């Protein structure tokens, strides 16, 4: 499969649009040439209707973001959703604020490993998506993201590196992802403009090709190291979201590998 066919869109990008008109949102994504999406909740829509419309518009669910607390108390619900959407690659979307400390990170690793022990025999992959704060804490001499994803007893928590949040942490995303050869089936592709406050996402988050992230090098590495999908996630934009996604999709497709 050529890397152009591995481009995906995280539906968090169009969360407001999904709340307003689910079918129109999925239709417009399909018209952008998108075949692969990553789920991030139903956005007020019945799961069966989301599944029906995804199928109608030939959108393949390649990953699912799951709320942090569900890994502790709703494993049955996670499994049910995974089978409904025919997707066994599931990520803890972000660690809730109350668990953003050493005790919480250790608890999170245990919970994710327990889920992985139970579900790996069924073909599931359990992973963690990284926001910026995950790079600010060390546990046992390891950055938190590395600590949680370090293999244990032959089971690995998969990483979902996010080029924006890695860049916002003053870390080179191309160098950082190299530690995850074979352990990062999805990479979040988000561009970054330095020089703004970390919380100023209106200015420091931008469309792919407008910032400083070296996406060509990310993809070159990914094609040699098991990356299955390059997932655009545009948390917000000054543009209409579909125009924003159109720009980012075109920028990725224009990369020559």
Automatic annotation (TrEMBL):
* MF annotations from Gene Ontology: endonuclease activity
Keyword Nuclease present in the record's keywords: the answer is yes
Q: Which UniProt keywords are given for this protein, alphabetically ordered?
A: Endonuclease, Hydrolase, Nuclease
The record's listing under PANTHER family reads: HYDROXYPYRUVATE ISOMERASE, INOSOSE DEHYDRATASE
Q: What is the official name of this protein in its record?
A: AP endonuclease, family 2 protein
Q: Which organism is it from?
A: Listeria fleischmannii 1991
